[in-house]
């Protein structure tokens, strides 16, 4: 599928960037290895030249270019060389990243500058330089190795500068996908679990690899994205979720130590049930940080399952919005909207005025939704108070019967 396509990959001398390069090389793609390492590094494996040899051996054509994405002229020179050598650029993979998992007072200014320069500015400038060439391609793609933007403060408090820099890459996806819609696809890819790379060894120490997956999972997911039409754009994709949707069932093949527990990756604190998370659907400009900060408690897990079980059929037959005022350990306001579009559920007030407001303890709520407490009995015994449309409240009881099997 990628035969004859030219991929410009930053940080492709090792790790994830090289894995994506090798996957494309098997199709006979041209790979521009835009990375810093020309001379062997004392602790990190590989150079742009050893990567080039592997790419050629895999069946691709390689163009190694010394590129530090902090230097705009080096990016421009490499892009010019790529266009002269291969006739154009079809795909850009912004993979180069710098990381320092340190708190605000512990992060030296030079480290802050490095992360902002490589992650945000480097991604932006490389995209800007490649875009005029990408627009001439038949099926152009930009793919950033960056996460869905999760505003849970937990992901900021221990490494604020790193988080800002990675979300800067994600914001490039958000903005450029819209700016170049119909011309160039722009998406983000992020792993569900930790990936075993030289960087992970440095961060986690010896033995960490058993809790990681191989870079192959990201290479396979990237290949799926880059072979889709350019109309597939503005998505924040999690590797495992996409591959499951593509029919992959055996994920042990990606594990370094099959059966060993895996470390979940940063920025993912809830199960993700949709491949392409459109960022605007997840709060957009209006982000409820309180709801994002809630851990996946029994109530939150219940709503996650309800959200996953939503269907247009439920919405069509119910036509009601339910608000739950819960007391106790997991107190707060939650809602189920079975009136608007395809339906929704979650923390906070519903997007439109509720038809029914139900008040009860969070413990009884979980019992009710898992079939251990009948709503009628809860109401009769005073555990459940209902305000509003009683007929809709009765309708909800019927729907609960269908949800119970999933909960």
Automatic annotation (TrEMBL):
One of its GO terms (cellular component) is peroxisome. It is found in: Mitochondrion; Peroxisome. It comes from the Eukaryota. Residues 311-400 form the SCP2 domain. It holds the Pfam family adh_short. Transmembrane segments: none annotated. InterPro entries: HSDL2 (IPR051935), NAD(P)-bd_dom_sf (IPR036291), SCP2_sterol-bd_dom (IPR003033), SCP2_sterol-bd_dom_sf (IPR036527), SDR_fam (IPR002347). The keyword Mitochondrion applies. GO terms for molecular function: oxidoreductase activity. The keyword Secreted does not apply. Keywords: Mitochondrion, NADP, Oxidoreductase, Peroxisome. Belongs to the short-chain dehydrogenases/reductases (SDR) family. This is Hydroxysteroid dehydrogenase-like protein 2. It comes from Nyctibius grandis. The lineage of its organism: Eukaryota, Metazoa, Chordata, Craniata, Vertebrata.
